[in-house]
């Protein structure tokens, strides 16, 4: 039987942005034990979630994604504000928001193109019917539990991280477990048509400095 891989496309905040946010969280974390916090090295901004992808669909997805990324341009981003899904009074996911300088539509455009790449590769695209809301998942509740996130959302409402220029998209594989693990399958620079060839020489897990 053919296997499948669990895939998503994401933008990774640089080290400076991670450090800044980790520091801001230090005070908040201790007071909120019921949350399962995501480790800073695993933080990412998901642009599209592909779900379980049959192995024979991966080549189509990879080539369509590389073309979508070739049309993107670098974007100035920062982490800003916070919220909770479904809502702060009954939360399962706690997140920090992302701000795009001058409301550049490039981020949501790239997200939409990644979703389209998935659909054209025959994927069901679970959850992609909802409008794109850029966020970085900070913590999840245990199991199906709903938590009161009002205090922590309020504490982070004014959070503003340092600006950075996003210029790279990663296709990530997810391994579910008590602590989910991610692996980089491919990386492409925005606007670089030849990047697929470059990325193909990189092994999963390799990171750019
Ligand atoms: P876990 O599911 O064990 O909590 P996880 O959510 O980090 O771990 P995945 O479920 O594989 O791992 O998700 C990978 C990424 O895709 C995460 O950023 C997650 O928030 C996002 N994601 C997962 N499911 C959906 C969905 N239905 N719609 C949009 N994004 C999703
Ligand atoms: Mg999940």
Descriptors:
single chain; 209 residues; alpha+beta; Cyclic Phosphodiesterase, Chain: A; 5-stranded antiparallel β-sheet; 4-stranded antiparallel β-sheet; 9 strands; 27% helix; 33% strand; binds adenosine-5'-triphosphate; binds magnesium ion
How large, in whole angstroms, is the Cα Rg? 17 Å
Full CATH superfamily name: Cyclic phosphodiesterase
Determine the structural class based on helices, strands and strand pairing.
alpha+beta
Structure summary, number of beta strands: 9
> Which residues form runs of ≥5 with pLDDT under 50?
195-201
Question: What general outline do the C-alpha atoms trace?
Answer: globular
User: Which ligands are bound?
Assistant: adenosine-5'-triphosphate, magnesium ion
Q: SSE order in H/E notation?
A: EHEEHEEHEHEEEH
Strand content: 25-35%
Structural notes for this entry:
Strand 4 and strand 5 (90-100) form a beta hairpin. This protein has five helices and nine strands, in the order E-H-E-E-H-E-E-H-E-H-E-E-E-H. It has helices at 15-30, 58-70, 106-120, 150-156, 195-200, and strands spanning 4-11, 36-37, 45-54, 75-87, 90-100, 135-140, 164-166, 168-175, 181-189. The protein is of the alpha+beta class and 209 residues long. The protein has one domain (4-197): Alpha-Beta Complex (Cyclic Phosphodiesterase, Chain: A). It is globular, with a radius of gyration of 17 Å. Adenosine-5'-triphosphate is lined by residues 6, 8, 46, 49, 126-127, 137, 140, 174, 176, 180.
């Amino acid at each position: 039987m053919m296997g499948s891989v669990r895939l998503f496309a994401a933008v990774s905040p640089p080290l400076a942005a991670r450090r800044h946010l980790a520091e801001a969280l230090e005070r908040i974390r201790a007071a909120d034990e019921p949350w399962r916090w995501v480790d800073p090295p695993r933080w990412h901004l998901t642009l599209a979630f592909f779900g379980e992808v049959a192995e024979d669909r991966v080549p189509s997805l990879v080539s369509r994604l590389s073309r979508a990324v070739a049309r993107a341009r670098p974007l100035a981003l920062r982490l800003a504000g916070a919220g909770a899904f479904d809502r702060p009074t009954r939360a399962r996911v706690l997140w920090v928001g992302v701000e795009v300088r001058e409301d550049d539509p490039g981020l949501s455009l790239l997200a939409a193109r990644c979703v389209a790449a998935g659909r054209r590769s025959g994927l069901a695209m679970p959850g992609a019917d909802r409008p794109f809301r850029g966020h970085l998942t900070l913590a999840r509740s245990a199991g199906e539990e709903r938590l009161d996130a009002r205090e922590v959302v309020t504490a982070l409402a004014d959070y503003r991280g340092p600006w950075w220029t996003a210029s790279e998209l990663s296709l990530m594989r997810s391994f579910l477990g008590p602590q989910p693990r991610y692996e980089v399958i491919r990386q492409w620079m925005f606007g670089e048509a030849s990047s697929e060839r470059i990325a193909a020489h990189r092994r999963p897990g390799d990171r750019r400095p």
